[in-house]
Design brief:
Blueprint: H1 8-23, H2 35-38, H3 43-48, H4 50-53, H5 56-80, E1 86-90, H6 97-100, E2 109-114, H7 116-128, E3 137-141, H8 149-156, E4 165-168, H9 177-188, E5 195-199, H10 216-222, H11 233-243, E6 247-250, H12 253-261, E7 276-280
Parallel strand pairs: 1-2, 1-4, 2-3, 4-5
Antiparallel strand pairs: 5-7, 6-7
């Protein structure tokens, strides 16, 4: 992993989260009352862009990014009932869990981990919006050219001798496989019932349907942040088991449809591919 400028894809994802709050019906897959303030956008501003946001490709991307965040937060909620008290958001970008956390999370330590450029931009936005930073939240800026993830986490106050839930969303596709292995190995070394929820990109095929618009990979490449690593689910499962993870759950399209999209009135599409996984030690 290398230090980059403030991520433009992080801002793009945040805009999709904001659009979900305004354009999609209740119950929302992800309730986020903070994101519009963070991005300095009003509902009217989103509605003005509704033609673009309601394009089939944009609806599919929106469904994906809110589903992956909801799945990670659901994993944390389950782990908290088992006594896990650390939540580490790797590549936090514009994630807002820290600022809208439910009451059950108040005794969970929340660590936002990111490259310095993106984290500085995020903190500036938080301050400008007048968003309060709860006492259980810590920012951990890590320059991966000068220290390892484990060293950075220790410096930031993460207790590696205690269990934790990690969310690592929209990151692995930008990294080399050895860099991915290093992160997964750090998590696998934590005590049970530690867990990591992360997204991955499956190899692209000629049959991929982007709804007539760009895919996330296309948007990332256009912003100078191309994807470099892809995994088939079967190969990824073998890797995770070899690293020491015991319980591996992929969020398949049928599972996602039942958990998050059943009975929706807005026609928001369930994911068509498996790109989200949970791995627990």
């Amino acid at each position: 992993m290398t230090v980059r400028r403030a991520s433009s894809t992080a801002a793009s994802v945040a805009w999709f989260h904001a659009a979900h709050q305004v354009l999609d019906s209740e119950p929302r897959i992800l309730d986020d009352p903070v994101i519009c303030r963070l991005m300095e956008v009003t509902p009217a501003g989103i509605i003005q862009l509704s033609e673009r946001f309601q394009a089939p490709w944009a609806r599919a991307l929106r469904a994906h990014v809110v589903t992956r965040t909801r799945f990670a937060e659901d994993a944390l909620a389950s782990a908290a009932t088992l006594g896990v008290r650390q939540y580490v958001v790797l590549g936090a970008g514009m994630d807002t869990f820290a600022y809208r956390q439910p009451a059950w999370a108040h005794d969970v330590r929340v660590f936002e981990v990111d490259q310095p450029g993106t984290q500085a931009t995020k903190r500036q936005r938080v301050a400008a919006a007048g968003i309060a930073v709860p006492e259980n939240v810590s920012y951990v800026a890590i320059d991966f050219e000068s220290e390892s993830l484990a060293d950075g986490l220790r410096r930031g106050g993460v207790r590696l001798n205690e269990s934790a839930v990690f969310a690592w969303l929209g990151v692995t596709m930008y990294l080399t496989e050895p860099a991915i292995d290093a992160v997964l190995g750090t998590v696998a070394a934590l005590p049970r019932p530690s867990e990591i929820v992360f997204t991955f990109a499956q190899p692209r095929t000629a049959d991929d349907d982007t709804g007539g618009g760009p895919s996330l990979a296309d948007l990332a490449a256009a912003s100078g942040e191309p994807w470099v690593t892809y995994f088939a689910p079967e190969a990824l499962e073998r890797k995770l088991r070899a690293l020491g993870f015991r319980t591996i759950r992929f969020l398949t399209p049928p599972d996602a449809a039942v958990r998050y999209f059943q009975g929706r009135l807005d026609g928001l599409p369930a994911p068509r591919r498996t790109t989200i996984v949970s791995a627990a030690v």
